[in-house]
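User: Okay, second chain of the day. Same drill as before: sequence in, structure tokens out.
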Amino acid sequence: MFFNKKIEKKEYDKSKVKPVIKASICNGEQVAGFKDLTTGTFEEVMLIKNDSDLNHFKDMYSITGVIEKIY
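Assistant: Same drill. Structure tokens below.
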């Protein structure tokens, strides 16, 4: 859990990458990361096990709104 833990803010280049959730069709595992807009490669940042993990990822990178899911 992340209670009473300060979130380290990080930045990403919005002109080069976009935040996405990569989800497995087989086992439902979800990983948050960034998709390169030029090459389409995915850079893994963290495993998403629940809504708290997703909110932590969004807070860490100051992401608002819905994050696209890719399979």
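The CA atoms of residues 11 and 33 lie 12 Å apart.

User: Thanks, on to the next one.
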